[in-house]
Specification:
Distance between the termini: 55 Å
Structural class: mainly alpha
Strand content: under 5%
Largest sheet: 2 strands, parallel
Number of strands: 2
Helix content: 55-70%
Strand order of the largest sheet: 1-2
Shape: globular
Number of domains: 4
Number of helices: 24
Radius of gyration: 30 Å
Order of helices and strands: HHHHHHHHHHHHHHHHHHHHEHHEHH
Length: 559
């Protein structure tokens, strides 16, 4: 899909690309259509979105506004970063396909469950919120496909530019907020909304005054006192309402709605890193006071106020210095150090807006890491396993683990290879599990991802392959398995073979050759032996090459 687009998803092309018989598609998926459907369902981010962005049963207008703002902004972020999903949407609008149609219809059914709840709010307004949502959704798809396909602009906006992309995210929020403000004007229909809205109006007016003063470089000594008094009043009101709530759903909804508003107000008072920002700190401190007793009920997707991000940057800077010092003393290798510190650097660099789930994860991660480093005899394997246990499910740590396993199995026999993989699987499956922690909540837990990989590698080493794969015409060689692997890769590297990649080559070697004392070969075993440097492997090959060269030269001379 990434390399050829949807036109490449044909039976023969797929079979050739993976180097397997096309009959396997029917064997595993009962046909190409089911394979395509399984692939698209795995890549489609909308089903988990609909689970994540769920409304409470008695959701009011402000909860709905908050949800749709976050949902549509997340859609832009995910679609922009997911090349395969871009190809799928392009495919969907380019041809009639029953598989795509069924998936699209299922997506519409899930989306309708959300939109149905908005209809009553807009019934007596001039706003068609479904149309607003459709235009934003279609606009995001169109702009992303333009920017990614041709690196082109739409109305002067280039989504490949970080600033332009941030402006579009802001505009999405403005459009949705404008729509829901029309609901507020209904009065009686949304009395609850207006009442909640009133609690924040004075602070928002003070924020506007603050911004005006800053632009005009005007000193307003009274503003801090007024804001301080208003913060105390709002805190008392919000805590009173919080104590009146009787169930978890009500508390979570109230926190989501109130904190979303308070974060926006806190950011309205925030200037930039390095300023005093005392006005923003007043609201940031109030937010912390509100959430401290109910921390586990705060919505993870809520953005972290800029003032709290800044204050924690100094704390995490000190943590990095401490951890780097401990790593040096423990002689942890540089690459693993960098991977372990990566969550801290992500927070400090603020490549994207930090959320509460990022903040809470980093604090728990730091706590466990400090406890771990109190062990003065900590090994690199123990540190790596702890990162996996703490669900540092970043591609870097996953790839690092795979590389370490591949280094261990290089040049080993099939039996030794199997034992190494089984030991690794046993170790990973027995790790302490922290399901509440997640570096990337959109990805599978690191433990699950690595177990899936280890199981797939072990599948290569099954003693009895399906009869489908038995080849009665295998070429018998006098090589050992390591010698055969190096010999075939040598020919591949020098252009003798025209295979797509080493994965395909290893499959074909295993399927078409047997070695001295080993009739059955596994692709994984062959691939692990491609880089053998032992003289017992390379010596006989060199001797044979020299003899072949002598014979060839003799043939040219007619001897």
């Amino acid at each position: 899909m990434r390399e050829q687009g949807f036109t490449g998803l044909k039976t023969n092309i797929i079979a050739k690309w993976v180097g397997k018989d096309k009959k396997l598609i029917r064997y595993h998926f009962q046909g190409l259509a089911n394979l395509q459907k399984a692939y698209i369902k795995e890549k489609d981010y909308w089903p988990p979105f609909f689970k994540k962005f769920a409304l409470s049963s008695d959701a009011d207008a402000i909860e709905m506004e908050t949800l749709f703002v976050e949902l549509m902004k997340e859609n832009l972020r995910f679609f922009y970063g997911d090349e395969e999903m871009q190809k799928i949407i392009l495919w969907q609008i380019s041809e009639t396909n029953p598989v795509l149609k069924s998936i699209s219809q299922a997506r519409e059914v899930d989306g309708a469950k959300l939109l149905d709840k908005t209809d009553v709010f807009f019934r007596n307004t001039n706003v068609n919120f479904r149309a607003v949502t459709a235009l934003m959704l279609g606009g995001v798809y169109y702009m992303v496909l333009h920017s990614k396909t041709e690196n082109s602009v739409v109305c002067g906006i280039n989504l490949n530019d970080d600033k332009d992309r941030e402006e579009v995210l802001k505009t999405i929020e403005h459009l949705i907020s404008w729509s829901w403000k029309q609901v507020v004007n209904l009065g009686s229909t949304e009395a609850t909304y207006l009442k909640s809205d009133y609690e924040f109006q004075l602070m928002e007016r003070l924020a506007s005054r603050f911004q005006k003063n800053h632009l005009e470089k005007k000193i307003d000594l009274a503003l801090v006192d007024e804001l301080s008094a208003e913060v105390s009043r709002v805190y008392a009101v919000l805590m009173g309402k919080l104590l009146d709530l009787t169930n978890e759903t009500q508390i979570k909804t109230f926190l989501k709605v109130s904190l979303f508003r308070l974060v926006r107000i806190a950011d309205s008072f925030y200037l930039e890193k390095g300023y005093d920002n005392r006005e923003s700190k007043l609201i940031g401190d109030m937010i912390l006071q509100i959430i401290t007793p109910v921390l586990d009920m705060v919505w993870g997707g809520l953005e972290l106020p800029m003032v709290l991000w800044e204050s924690n940057c100094m704390v995490f800077d000190e943590d990095i210095l401490f951890l780097e010092d401990r790593f040096r003393k423990l002689q942890i290798e540089t690459e693993l150090r960098g991977l372990t510190l990566m969550p801290f650097h992500r927070f400090l660099e603020r490549s994207s807006r930090m959320k509460w789930q990022d903040f809470l994860y980093l604090n728990q991660y730091k706590k466990h890491l400090r406890e771990l480093l109190s062990n003065h005899h900590l090994t690199q394997d123990e540190l790596l396993n702890s990162m996996i246990s703490l669900n540092l499910n970043d591609e870097g740590i996953i790839s690092y683990f795979k590389t370490k396993i591949k280094e261990k199995i290089l040049g080993q026999s099939d039996q030794q290879l199997k034992e190494i993989l089984l030991d690794a699987r046993k170790c990973i499956s027995q790790l302490a599990f922290f399901p509440e922690l997640s570096f990337n909540p959109e990805k599978q837990h690191a433990v699950g991802e690595l177990l899936k990989w280890l199981n797939s590698e072990l599948d290569y080493l099954k003693d009895e392959p399906l009869d489908l794969f038995v080849n009665p015409l295998k070429i018998k060689t006098k090589f050992t398995a390591p010698q055969l692997a190096v010999w075939q890769k040598l020919k591949y590297d020098n252009g003798l073979y025209d295979e797509l990649n080493l994965e395909v080559l290893s499959e074909k070697i295993a399927g078409n050759f047997s070695t001295r004392g080993q009739d059955k070969l596994s692709p994984f075993s062959i691939k692990s032996k491609f880089y053998g440097k032992d003289s017992a492997v390379t010596g006989p090959i060199e001797t044979m090459l020299l003899k072949m060269l002598t014979d060839l030269r003799a043939a040219r001379k007619g001897i």
